[in-house]
Amino acid sequence: MFYLRCITCGSEYEEGDVEYTCPRCGMRMGTLEVLYDYDRIKVSREDFSPCADMWQFRKILPFKREVCRTHLRVGSTPLYSFPNIAKKFGLSNLLVKYDGSNPTGSYKDRASAVAIAKAVEYGYKDIYCASTGNAASSLAGLAASSQLKAHIFVPASAPRAKISQIVVYGADLIAIDGTYDDAFDVSLKVGSTKGWFSRNSAINPYLLEGKKTGALEIIVQNNWN
Fold it and tell me: What class does CATH assign to 110-207?
C-alpha cells in the first residue's frame, strides 16, 4: 500500500526494487519519499487515541506486515499550552510538543524506531549511522532494547556527553578525525562493506515516516482541530 518516489526525477519504485536511494540520480541527489495508496488504507478517527504511542499509526507507516516494535515506548509525548506566550505574540493559543520525554530524550527516537523495525523486518542484525548527537544516542539506545548491534560514526570532536551516552548504551563507537561529512562518508563505505542497515538521514527513506508521527499525534491530541 506504499511505494517510493525520487524527489529529484520523480521515478517511482516498489519497496523491493531499490534499497535506499534512486539508482538514476545517485546517492547524493536520489532521496526517496514514501507515498501511500490511501484509497486502500482503512482508518478512522476512532482508531487513534491521545494516550497511545507512535505505533497506533502503523497502518500509515511503511510496513507490509506486523511491526517489530522496540521495547521502549516511543511517542505519546505531552502537548503543552503556553497562553501567556501566545498572548504576547497575538495568538489565540500556542501549543508545544515535548518530545524530550521519549526514551533517549529527543524526537529522533521516532525515526530510529522505524529504522530499527525495518532492519528487523529485513533480517538485519546490525544497524549504523553517522551523527554528532541526538540521532546517535537515539539509535544506540533503541537498538540495545531491540537486540540489534548499533555502529555509530562520529567526528572525534563530538560532545563528550553524547559520546558517553552512546557508550553507556553499548553501541560500537567509531570516532573519525574530521567533520560530520567525513564521518558520514566513512559510515557509508563501512556500512556497505559490512552489510549493515543504514539509519543515515537523506539515505534511508523511512526515517521521515517515523518523524511524521509527531505531527499526527498533535492532531489527535488537539481533538482534530
Answer: alpha beta
